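Sequence in, structure out.
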Amino acid sequence: MIYINKQNIFLIIVQLVADIMLLIVLFFVFLFIHNSELDKTNENLIHLLSSHYKALILIVFSWLLISNSTKIYFSFLTDRFIDFVRKFFIQIFLFGIILFAVSGLKSEDLFTNTETVYFIILLFLISFVYKFLLFYFIKYLIKIGEIVKERILIIGENSNSELFVKTINNNPEYGIIIENHLLNSNDRFDIGEVNNYLNQINNKKIDSLYVCVGDKLNKSNINNILKVAEDNYLKVKYIFDSSIENLNTMDVLFIDIFPIFTHNKLPLDKMVNQFIKRLFDLFFTASVFILLLWWIIPLISILVYFSQGKPIFFAQKRNGLNGKEFNCFKFRTMKPDKFNDIKPTERNDPRVTKLGRILRKTSLDELPQFINVLKGDMSIVGPRPHMVSENEAYSEVIKRYSLRHYVKPGITGLAQVKGYRGAIDSDKDMEMRIRTDIYYVRNWSFLLDLYIIYQTVKLIIAGDENAI
């Protein structure tokens, strides 16, 4: 068993050494290519190397500085694959700029522009392949329990603690092991219980204390826990109650030594991100139309007409950006019913036709929503638009429900690829869907959209058991 918190330095050094060796090899390969006409005598080779060793040092040093900024060598331990890819692209992009600059600093170019481009492409391809393999190899070892990132003790409880424990236990790939969960008792919290537990295990199995804030832990309790953590050299992390979880949308600034929390903007509040997302929506829709929609929409329309009759399409009022209502288009999959506009689809719903079940299972019934994307009512990726009646029902039940309307609804979304699609059997089902939607709103990135599209395609091909 490897404990990452003690042994991760070895894995970081392996990656660092591999990257530096790759840089050195590529540097000399392209140096010799650039000077291919040079007479390769020992004297000339020594002169060539001595003339350019400073450039090599600058290139390696630049790589190390960028790595320190992107934290690329910690990604395989702490990040999802999409975060790792984002950091890797930033790393290569910034390094490429520096390489172009270094190459042109000397009176005679170190490399030509074409050679520099090939250098960057080879660096990208080779390093991405072995980092990709290492990333998933480490994740596999974490999943099977050979590597443990963190052993934790949870202290207290709040509205999020039960769900957090369930999430950790159901996802071994996170590499977190809950050694114990010390709960509140008799409406108070006994700090002595924490001390007793830590003394029993002799402080050898716990890396961090996870403190549940916002319920029965008062200021005195938390101060005592911090003291215990300091005495036992343990990190302290906090699980916030749902009523204050909007702290993760805040920036921290310091005035002298005092931390000040200020609300920051959501990613899609920025005009440049809105432009990127809209441009991608139009490009993706045009591509799908050229490859698929021009023939499959007429084909499905004919099938719907001859198997179910008119109407072929179904337009339903949904809430979109800022809660504004719009007509969401779908292929009709249900028999005519006066409750279709207000009653959500249920498991084995008798209103759904035979063809409708096939269309729903394959998500083909959603294809007309590309029209909504062109109109600007929807995006390719975003929280799925709910019926107006559902919004009215759940906005009073689930906290921060309205935050999902801060962005355009999508044809597909993070909640759908995470499995929170289909029938709503309880308020808890809807709460998990909304939580995932809110995470998307707060953490949007272009790479996250690409990841969701990729996972959606996988679900369509493999079949989504949650589709009803």
